[in-house]
Design goal:
heterodimer; A: 135 residues; alpha+beta; ATP Synthase, domain 1; 2 domains; five-stranded mixed sheet; 10 strands; 25% helix; globular; B: 290 residues; alpha/beta; Helix Hairpins; Pyruvate Kinase, Chain: A, domain 1; 6 helices; 6 strands; 62% helix
């Protein structure tokens, strides 16, 4: 039985990663989850968070702002609205993402204020995890 | 009969025009390559997205609880035509062919007793539609300040469209853009995006997924994003088509300028010869008269 799975991370603008991984930690909307080989097929939406891919050569982190993940027995495809390798996320980039989330909260329709508030809270949590100040 | 000097000036001016069109052609070629790359980069996302979405739509679509973005508002009285064109001209029939398709569609809809609203993206389409459809144009999205098309541009347009949909301003939205086939062929296309339409997914291939949160919640989350994704794909196709169209238009212009220069040069040489012959005749007849 294979103990690896194919991991693809794509955003609308580019393909960020396509590697053979051992496990993928996904920030799901209903909680974090780790997908390994032969996971039951599932689709989950993402909250803003850090996605970690563990493969033979170590692990890679990506910051995603939302989207969804499709998990099958043989692989994981993450379709992120906006995704950046951890190394590319600086305080300035983070500020921008947070500002975008707050702007979305400000203009959210009345039935979506809860969701927008949650997105902002998640974004702040990401900042704490990465050691950035939420300004 | 133009004088020699006139001809010389004309040749010089056509030559400089040829230089400009040649340069524009090369710029368009470089931009086309970039636009095609961008379109290719976006393809994996769009393909996966549509695959997942159509699978979901197929399983939830039948139920009464399906989101309005999928099932529609229940009527099709008001149509919104989103006409996407370029910000610039000098690209052959690119803009006109998109506008023509939208015009035909609008005329059909009005003939069928529907209300038509038009939203333009790109300056050229607005200029053309403003002449005879001005009363139908409800909004315009200006992308002239955008140097590189990003997903955020598509998101902004999508947000505008969804806001109008929620406010009940229209029932059906269709986007008009040009699908890039090759440098010499771009196909004006109309695509309905609201309510979402999918090609029938092969039922046998569909996998049984667990959904977290529920199927309906995911679908409700994905459908608005699907609108943005489709608009983004259309914007990219359009950008590639525009550059392709400009490239072939400028190639034609360069060739025409070359032909014109050849013609003018022959005319110039002929009239120069005529002047010389005339002078000779004058000299000879002058000598004979003596």
């Amino acid at each position: 039985m294979a103990d690896t799975l194919q991991f693809d991370l794509v955003s609308p603008e580019r393909r960020l990663a396509s590697v053979v991984a051992r496990e993928v930690q996904i920030p799901g909307a209903d909680g974090d989850m780790t997908a390994m080989a032969d996971h039951a097929p599932m689709i989950t939406t993402l909250r803003p968070g850090v996605l970690r891919v563990v493969h033979g050569g170590g692990s890679d982190d990506y910051v995603v702002s939302g989207g969804f993940a499709e998990v099958t027995a043989s692989g994981v495809s993450v379709l992120a609205e906006q995704a950046l390798p951890r190394a590319e996320v600086t305080q300035a980039v983070y500020d921008e993402m947070l500002a975008a989330a707050r702007a979305a909260q400000g203009s959210a329709a009345s039935d979506a204020t809860d969701a927008a508030a949650k997105t902002v809270a998640d974004m702040v949590a990401v900042g704490e995890q990465l050691g950035f100040a939420a300004r | 009969m133009p004088s020699l000097k006139d001809l010389k000036n004309r040749i010089a001016s056509v030559k400089s025009t040829r230089k400009i069109t040649k340069a524009m052609q090369m710029v368009a070629a470089a931009k086309l390559r970039r636009a095609q790359e961008a379109a290719e980069q976006a393809r994996p996302y769009t393909d996966r997205f549509n695959a997942v979405l159509s699978g979901l739509a197929a399983s939830v679509g039948g139920s009464d609880s399906a989101p309005r973005l999928l099932s529609g508002t229940g009527s099709d009285k008001v149509h919104l035509l989103v006409v996407m064109t370029a910000e610039r001209g000098l690209c052959g029939g690119f803009n006109s062919s998109i506008v023509k398709l939208a015009r035909t569609r609008a005329a059909e809809l009005i003939a069928a007793g529907k209300t038509v609203k038009i939203l333009t993206v790109g300056k050229k389409g607005r200029e053309q539609l403003r002449r005879d459809w001005a009363s139908h144009v409800v909004a315009h999205v200006d992308l002239s300040a955008v140097r590189k098309l990003g997903y955020t541009n598509a998101q902004d347009i999508a947000r505008d469209l969804l806001g109008r949909f929620d406010a009940g301003e229209y029932d059906v939205a269709t986007i008009f853009f040009s699908r890039f086939q090759s440098v010499i062929s771009q196909i004006p296309t109309a695509q309905q995006i609201i309510p979402a339409k999918f090609e029938e997914a092969e039922a046998g291939a569909a996998m049984l997924y667990d959904y977290e949160p529920s199927e309906e919640a995911i679908l409700a989350d994905l459908l608005p994003r699907g609108v943005a994704t489709q608009i983004f794909a259309a914007l990219l196709e359009n950008a590639a088509s525009e550059q392709g169209a400009r490239m072939s238009a400028m190639d034609n212009a360069t060739r025409n300028a070359g032909d014109m220069i050849d013609g003018l040069t022959i005319e110039f040489n002929r009239s120069r010869q005529a002047v010389i012959t005339n002078e000779l005749i004058e000299i000879i007849s002058g000598a004979e008269a003596l």
